[in-house]
Every structure is written in structure tokens, then in C-alpha cells.
Design brief:
The protein is an alpha/beta fold. 30% of the residues lie in helices and 27% in strands. The strands form three sheets. The protein has an eight-stranded mixed sheet, with helices on both faces. Helix 1 packs across helix 6.
Length: 233
């Protein structure tokens, strides 16, 4: 079997030295990678990871560092087209928005003094600008492209919410599963994640779900369910 794991967070570039990112460390993806590399049936793991995330070191693992959402989209599409991928575990925290334009309030309102125009060109935006505005646009939904590119691939999606009722968490995760033709979705709530615990709910196509309490339990359950799904094909 050949699989893809995405982990960590994407990072959207403002200029050559500044980015907008999220708080994902990639620790769950790392645990999942470690669990899969111990399985004899696994021949190769493409590990697509954010810049701050580490990867499991093993001869089976090919790490691919990812910058922004478009970088993730390009590399994931390439791998799905070039190789026969049995499963994608899409654990990466993908930015919902990407930088479209950088401007200033005066430019936006048309009140900028032409004789004192702010220069936004170059590789690093000046730190002397008082009213920098970053205009962002919606990022493409990478998860929606996976089954389109490789219909027979087993897909595990992930959904993180914060401070919602348990029933809503399961409902939202299940809608993600249906919308993107996932085989499973791992749903979790930020308030149920801590240093030594991580409550997770692996939702199935019939809306039943497995409950886990740590990264390691989540990783082992995902391995178990993916292997079962592949044997059924």
C-alpha cells in the first residue's frame, strides 16, 4: 500500500519574510505517520508537512515540505496523478484564506498623497507603514479535489471546531464526509485537546463513530479502519 499523510499547518506568504499561519504543530499527523510506518503492508508514505512540523523518520517515508494552500494543492495533485495511492489521511490544518493583495488604508480610500505614496514593492514591505492592510480571499478546498483525482483512494478527512455541543460536532463532521465523499472523518473540539489528552471521534459513512482519548489511540484507530476499508475493496 502507498498512502499520503498531510500534517501541520499551511503558511500564506505576505512578503519574503512574513507569513500568516495557524497554531497547528502537526503532532497528530506525526502520531498517525508513526503508526502507519509500523504496518508491513505499507510500502510508502508521502508525508506532506507544514514548515514547523516534523515527520517520522523511516525509509518508507518521503517528506514533502509544504508552504501555502496552492503548494499543497500542486504537490498532492501531482502525487495522486503520478502514483497509485491507496489512502489519503488529510490531517493538515489548511488555511481558509490566502493573501490576495497588500495595500494601505489611504490607498484603499483613495486619500493617499501622491507625493508621499507608500512603496509596497520589493521583497520585504517597509516596517515604516502605519496602516498596512492585507486583503485575503478564500482558498480552494483541497479536500474536495482528492476523490476527483483518485476515486478509489480511501479518504480520511479532519474537522476541528471549538466549544460546540457534541451533537453539532458530529453533524458538522458528517456533512464534511458527505460533501467530499470521505470514507471517514476525524472530528474533534479544541476544548477537548490538551497536553496529555485528545478526544477524537472517527465518523463512518453510516454516521456511527469511534471514540478515542489520545493522539496514539486516534492514530491506531485510523490505521485499523483504513486497513479494513482497503481489504474490503
Amino acid at each position: 500500500m502507498k498512502i499520503v499523510i498531510t500534517a501541520g499547518g499551511t503558511s500564506e506568504r505576505i512578503d519574503d519574510v512574513r507569513t500568516i499561519t495557524n497554531s497547528s504543530t502537526g503532532s497528530l499527523g506525526f502520531a498517525i505517520g508513526n503508526a502507519f510506518k509500523e504496518i508491513d503492508e505499507i510500502e510508502k508514505i508521502y508525508y506532506l508537512h507544514g514548515k514547523r512540523a516534523v515527520w517520522p523518520e523511516d525509509e518508507k517515508v518521503e517528506p514533502v515540505e509544504i508552504g501555502g494552500v496552492l503548494d499543497l494543492k500542486e504537490n498532492l495533485t501531482r502525487i495522486l496523478q503520478e502514483d497509485q495511492i491507496d489512502a489519503v489521511i488529510h490531517a493538515m490544518a489548511v488555511s481558509d484564506y490566502m493573501v490576495h493583495q497588500v495595500t494601505t488604508l489611504d490607498k484603499l480610500m483613495g486619500t493617499e498623497d501622491p507625493d508621499h505614496a507608500q512603496d509596497l514593492s520589493g521583497n520585504k514591505i517597509s516596517s515604516d507603514i502605519d496602516d498596512l492592510i492585507i486583503h485575503m480571499k478564500r482558498s480552494p478546498k483541497v479536500i474536495s479535489l482528492i476523490k476527483q483525482a483518485s476515486p478509489e483512494t480511501t479518504l480520511v478527512g479532519f474537522k476541528l471546531l471549538s466549544g460546540v455541543p457534541h451533537e453539532e460536532l458530529i453533524d458538522v463532521g458528517y456533512r464534511l464526509l458527505q460533501k467530499n465523499n470521505c470514507d471517514f472523518v476525524m472530528a474533534n473540539d479544541l476544548r477537548e485537546i490538551g497536553r496529555d489528552f485528545h478526544k477524537g471521534y472517527l465518523i463512518h459513512k453510516d454516521k456511527s463513530y469511534d471514540s478515542m482519548n489520545t493522539n496514539e489511540e486516534i492514530a491506531q484507530m485510523i490505521v485499523r479502519r483504513v486497513l479494513e476499508e482497503r481489504k474490503g475493496k
